[in-house]
Write a structure and sequence with these properties.
It contains 6 helices and 4 strands; from the N terminus they run αββαααββαα. By secondary structure, it is of the alpha+beta class. The chain has 2 domains: 34-92, no CATH class; 94-157, no CATH class.
Length: 157
């Protein structure tokens, strides 16, 4: 039994010695991605068709009408919306990469939800939840100014 423990101890120490330089040189905190997505599916805007927000009737996208942009997967309700997105993706992307607009204005990052949205001056803003959306709506103009100043630097803060 003792020889097995010695072998295991030597194996552990060897692996530890090999991995130690990697862990020391790797950054402790990685920068945040420019687009908020779920870790489960890498979908931007929670899988909603971001073009559909601009008509005032957001709808879930479909897997058959999908593309990748800025490291995220985007789904659309129709081929026409996918094609429209393809002509100028930046015009349709949610502000602040789909992170909660109120949180960005406050110097923080939180997920944005497609259930709590607002389009203003041709820009889509997402918020975390109903309570945060109400706070956002009360001071929207000043919060947009603050969030614009913090974006995209907040991703590396």
């Amino acid at each position: 039994m003792i020889p097995i423990l010695n072998v295991m101890k030597k194996l552990f120490l060897t692996v530890f010695a090999l991995l130690m330089p990697i862990s020391i040189s790797a950054p402790v905190w990685a920068d945040e991605p420019p687009i908020y997505t779920s870790w489960r599916d890498n979908l931007g805007a929670g899988g909603y068709d971001i073009v559909s927000f601009y008509s005032g009737a957001p709808r879930k996208g479909k897997a058959e009408f999908a593309t990748q942009y800025m490291g995220a997967n985007w789904q659309f309700q129709t081929q026409a919306n996918l094609d429209l997105f393809g002509t100028n993706p930046e015009a349709f992307l949610p502000q602040y990469g789909g992170y909660c607009a109120w949180a960005v204005a406050k110097g923080k990052l939180a997920k944005g939800s497609p259930d709590y949205w607002h389009v203003e001056d041709g820009k889509l803003y997402l918020n975390y939840n109903k309570r945060i959306k109400k706070r956002w709506d009360k001071r929207r103009e000043s919060l947009i100014d603050k969030a614009d100043q913090r974006w995209p630097g907040i991703l590396t803060d």
